[in-house]
Design goal:
The protein has a single domain, classed as OB fold (Dihydrolipoamide Acetyltransferase, E2P), CATH 2.40.50. 0% of the residues lie in helices and 49% in strands. It has strands at 2-16, 21-27, 33-38, 51-58, 64-72. It has a 5-stranded mixed beta barrel. It starts with a strand and ends in a 19-residue tail after the last strand. Residues 82-91 have low confidence and may be disordered.
């Protein structure tokens, strides 16, 4: 296992599985998209906020980014500025 951290993340989607929540989040600086796993089902992540997230990379048989902590990203602003996309998705 090794550590990861990312800033300026916004929520694209959230899915509840039997053992965890799966968050798909986008870094608006690098344009990378991350799939993050919350096995505690306790992380308060809202779609209209910007976050800093830290955790561990668990690579037993698949690569999982497991959330350990979430906090508001006050350095990069605390609200998302949505842009309209041609398909009307908006996020």
């Amino acid at each position: 296992m090794f550590n990861f951290s990312a800033n300026n993340l916004t929520l694209l989607s959230r899915t509840e599985c039997a053992s965890c929540f799966v968050f798909v989040m986008k870094d608006h600086h690098t344009k990378r998209v991350y799939r993050l796993y919350d096995f505690t089902k306790s992380q308060p992540i809202a779609s209209d906020q910007v976050y800093c997230i830290a955790g561990k990379v668990n690579s037993a048989d698949k690569l999982y980014l497991v959330i350990e902590s979430v906090k508001m990203d006050t350095k990069n602003g605390n609200h998302v500025q949505h842009t309209n996309t041609p398909d009307g998705a908006g996020r």
